[in-house]
Design brief:
By secondary structure, the chain is α/β, with parallel strands linked by helices. Helix content is about 35%, strand content about 10%. It is built from 7 helices and 7 strands. The chain has a 7-stranded parallel β-sheet. Helix 6 crosses helix 7. The longest helix has 18 residues. The radius of gyration is 22 Å and the shape is globular.
């Protein structure tokens, strides 16, 4: 088969262009949110880039001590994995004070997954990487760019974001000048609401 004289050049050019395009694509990595040390160790077998450990685990689990937290971080780092502490999705003033005192003890973690804007005040003197959770309800590029002033490392879109908006949001964020990494959350049944007053209960307060 006789090839045109420029066929070899075009082939090399196309291959080089494809390699450059692939190198510009964001790396697809796995992050896992866990409720306990045991779940974190199990998740390591899937080679995640990052593990988010709940700071307020569901019963009967208890929050890890500073020593256990340090040991778990060492184990994660040996497996090329980061350990982030995931703050509770709802925090009152008392919890804010408790976590402020906790972070002053310099826990051994690689970063923090925050769930409300008040967490920036809690962490303002800690100089640790921050990722915004879905509870921050990031719905557009302007919202992500607003929080980028706090030097966030990553962000996750609102769970309510429509599919088409979900596809276009990462590009919009990049065009806005924000370099924080975006994460797409794959989840089961999400936590919908925390309520002290359950109107379905027989002993519920009478609503007028």
């Amino acid at each position: 088969i006789d090839l045109p004289n420029n066929a070899s050049f075009n082939l090399k050019h196309n291959l080089k262009q494809n390699v450059q395009e692939k190198s510009l694509r964001p790396e697809k990595v796995l992050s896992v949110r866990v409720n306990s040390k045991e779940q974190a160790l199990l998740a390591l077998s899937f080679q995640p880039k990052r593990i988010y450990l709940s700071a307020e685990p569901f019963a009967p689990e208890k929050p890890l001590s500073l020593l256990d937290l340090s040991k778990l971080k060492d184990t994660c780092n040996r497996n090329q994995c980061e350990l982030y502490l995931a703050l509770p999705r709802m925090m009152d003033d008392k919890q804010n004070d408790l976590f402020s005192a906790f972070f002053r003890k310099k826990p051994s973690i690689d970063g923090v997954l925050i769930t409300h804007s008040g967490a920036f005040r809690i962490l303002e003197n800690e100089h640790c990487p921050i990722v915004c959770d879905t509870a921050m309800n990031l719905y557009n590029a302007e919202a992500v760019r607003f929080y980028s002033r706090f030097n966030i490392q990553g962000w996750t879109p609102s769970l309510e974001l429509p599919y088409k908006s979900l596809l276009s949001l990462p590009k919009s964020v990049k065009l806005s000048g924000c370099n924080a990494e975006g994460e797409i959350v794959l989840h089961g049944l999400p936590t919908l609401m925390y309520m002290d007053h359950d109107i379905s209960d027989e002993k519920a307060d009478t609503a007028e």
